[in-house]
Design goal:
The protein has 500 residues and is of the alpha/beta class. It is built from 15 helices and 19 strands. The strands form four sheets. It has an eight-stranded mixed beta sheet with strand order 9-10-12-11-15-19-16-17, with helices on both faces. A six-stranded mixed beta sheet has the order 1-8-5-2-4-3, with helices on both faces. Helix 3 packs across helix 4 and helix 12 crosses helix 15.
Length: 500
């Protein structure tokens, strides 16, 4: 469980307990404090390195159990490669890699945040600590039986030795807030749908009030008054009522327009009447990863007291196929007044986003609007699980998102929008249809659909996170099915460009 980790900072001279983790470069060189701590063990490391052909190559590791002359149960040496080529996101990965080398039974560990030239810089050490926290996450609350060797200790004490404890703690504080936001998003994505349905999701989002976030929940009656028929049509086949949650953080100047984030929250997606195949349908509990990201992001912004006004809105539904479910061929009138012919009830996320985006734009008139959705399998075909697909009406916003992605490792790749694709969703019977009616360009026509509900005066970006939001590629900082993808990306976007 995430709360089993107790991470603190200490001096290089503090006693070493449990597993000892150190870093070396490609020439097998250590920092001065590391050399002093290792003492005569340095020669043992050199011999073991020759035997194992370990040279300090980036992300490589060398392990010695119970090394003679060292008060540690295990020594882990991690290579960083060429120090001059390390990027900021590499220190996050090093922290994750360090925690990942700790045996499951380990209760105590000491990590020296030092490179051959000396102590890591303050920001580097704080990034390393954040990597430890993110890698330590595990979702195991429903496991009731475990073999003794699989049971971790109740608390895992990890001490990161740094050069300036006070400065690193100060730099670490906002990273704790961001990590907590990622963990919150992961928890939401990992929960089963019988536990996390729209009303329960809304209740959990309500816990953000303790961070002085204003939380407002729109029920079915309120959405009917507003004319959110596109969203309500998706959820009408479920016994679980739909909800929209509006979260507001006012950390900027009074009256200043907010930045806005919209999340698709389909708590379970059967496909509706256009029902999905049974194979892997259980993964559709994660079809609310966009909404989970928005909740996690709002937590991060408030917890670190971001100097910005921000709104987060999530549309929460279940897409189920009972006798009152929406049918292919139905026509609904969205909140915007535009009519939609339903071609495929499994193209439901864009219907949810259509009403929530329109509502957010009309009510809050934001500085920009970013929506996130596990929207299409087509984006996975195009980009795999390395990048999220990005569609935007604004070059500056797209460039800023790309830069934030490169810096955090949560990568986005811009995809095209064009009138030729837009024509593919024109309908014979309504203003538009909810799919392009073709296998080709499915992620693009979905984005074109959403764009019809965006005021072009508002900078907007749509992030299709179908390949990154759940069951995504495992990394040094994430071994969870639910990744919490997007929290760090969007926090960086806000921090770099929209805070005063």
């Amino acid at each position: 469980m995430p709360n089993a980790l107790k991470l603190g900072f200490g001096h290089f001279t503090a006693p070493i307990r449990g597993v000892f983790v150190v870093f070396c470069d490609e020439g097998l060189k250590f920092g001065p404090a590391t050399r002093r701590a290792l003492g005569a063990v340095t020669d043992i490391v050199a011999r073991a390195a020759r035997s194992e052909r370990f040279t300090g190559k980036k992300s490589s590791t060398l392990e010695l159990v119970m090394p003679a002359g060292l008060k540690a149960t295990r020594l882990v040496v991690i290579g960083v490669g060429k120090v001059g080529e390390l990027k900021p996101k590499d220190f996050l990965r090093l922290g994750g890699l360090a925690f990942g080398r700790l045996p499951n039974s380990t209760a105590d560990a000491s990590i020296f945040a030092e490179l051959p030239g000396g102590a890591m810089r303050v920001e580097q050490a704080a990034d390393l600590a954040q990597g430890v926290r993110l890698r330590a996450y595990a979702f195991d609350r429903y496991k009731t039986k475990r073999k003794d060797e699989e049971k971790p200790p109740a608390v895992r004490n990890v001490t990161v030795a740094v050069g300036d404890i006070s400065a690193v703690r100060k730099a670490d504080a906002p990273r704790v807030a961001i990590s907590d936001g990622v963990v919150l998003a992961r928890d939401l994505v990992n929960e089963p749908a019988n536990v996390l349905y729209p009303e329960e999701f809304a209740r959990r989002a309500g816990a953000l009030k303790k961070l002085r976030i204003t939380v407002e929940v729109l029920d079915v009656k309120a959405m009917k008054r507003l004319g959110m028929n596109a969203l309500l049509g998706v959820g009408q086949g479920s016994k679980r009522e739909s909800r929209v949650v509006v979260m507001r953080w006012n950390g900027g100047r009074a009256g200043e327009a907010p930045v806005a984030f919209i999340g698709k929250g389909v708590c379970f997606d059967t496909g509706g009447i256009s029902i999905k195949p049974a194979s892997n349908m259980e993964d559709m509990k994660g079809d609310m990863a966009g909404a989970a990201c928005v909740v996690g992001l709002m937590h991060a912004l408030a917890a670190r007291k971001a100097r910005v006004n921000a709104v987060g809105l999530v549309g929460l539904v279940e897409n189920m196929p009972d006798g009152s479910a929406q049918r292919p061929g139905d026509i609904v009138k969205s909140m915007s007044g535009q009519t939609i012919e339903i071609i495929n009830t499994d193209a439901e996320g864009r219907l949810v986003l259509a009403d929530v985006i329109w509502y957010a734009a009309q009510r809050f008139k934001p500085r920009f609007l970013v929506d996130l959705a596990t929207l299409t399998g087509a984006i996975i075909v195009a980009l795999g699980q390395e990048y999220a697909g990005m569609f935007s009406n604004n070059d500056q916003l797209a460039e800023r998102l790309t830069k934030a992605g490169n810096e955090t490792g949560e990568l986005v790749w811009r995809m095209p929008l064009a009138p030729e694709y837009d024509k593919m969703i024109d309908s014979k019977f309504a203003d538009m249809k909810n799919t392009g009616g073709s296998r080709w360009g499915g992620a693009i026509t979905a984005a074109q659909f959403i764009k019809r509900f965006v005021d072009d005066k508002i900078p907007w970006a749509h992030l299709d996170i179908a390949g990154t939001g759940f069951d995504s590629r495992q990394t040094d900082i994430n071994k969870s099915w639910g990744s919490g993808w997007g929290v760090r990306l969007l926090n960086r976007l806000v921090a770099d460009h929209y805070e005063k």
